[in-house]
Amino acid sequence: MAVHGPQNWWPGKTRFEVIVGAILTQNTAWTNVQRAITALRREKLLTVKALEGVSLRKLAGLIRPSGYFRQKARKLKEFVRYLRLQHDGSLTKMFRTPTATLREQLLAVHGIGPETADSVLLYAGKHAVFVVDAYTRRILERHRLVRGTESYDDIRGLFEKSLPANRQLFNEYHALIVHAGKHFCHAKAPLCSTCALRQHLPEIPEDAR
DNA sequence: TGCCAGGCCGGGT
DNA sequence: ACCCGGCATGGC
After folding, report:
1. Would you say the pTM of this structure is higher than 0.90?
2. pLDDT of A135 strictly over 70
3. Taking the CA of residue A60 as centre, how many other CA atoms within 13 Å lie in the half-sphere pointing to its CB?
4. 27-56 on A, CB < 7 Å from strand C
């Protein structure tokens, strides 16, 4: 890519916008998320208070282009509700929570699963967690580095145990994986040259990690 | 035109 | 503990 090490990679300027983007991009193309974010910005809704104040109905209409818009409108509401109840509506307070504790809290919020929680922790909160996404899995599988039956936490653990716990590194690593994935590792198996070579490697033994 | 995109939830085995 | 259907729009 043109620039290696764009520290703090993630489309989105403020912490809150990063979180909104993390929820809206669930199983959705970024171009669609952009439209939704643009609409929210136009309506001045990219703040905790503003989002708390808007109706579920209006919110859903604005984020329509991002898909699953009713589901996601609810998810956004659930998050700001959690933030208000647990952290007085303050992201600064929220992110002062120890990583493991905060991760559990986020996972308990309706609509926030492991990838979204970790994206929020890493990209909005600068906590050192490795984000595993569809691209990460697919690339590892195509390269026969995993068998494909591993859980989210298995794969996250793989990276976190193999790399120094440095949030800048995790940030950049994930950014590069997404970049590579978008260009070279699509779901519909047009194997890139590297993948094709790997196809000829032996299977991973049963007892291997 | 159908398949895909930086998931997650709820109900059923 | 897995497995599956539902959720929805826009691009190629």
Report:
1. yes
2. yes
3. 9
4. 27-29, 31-32, 35
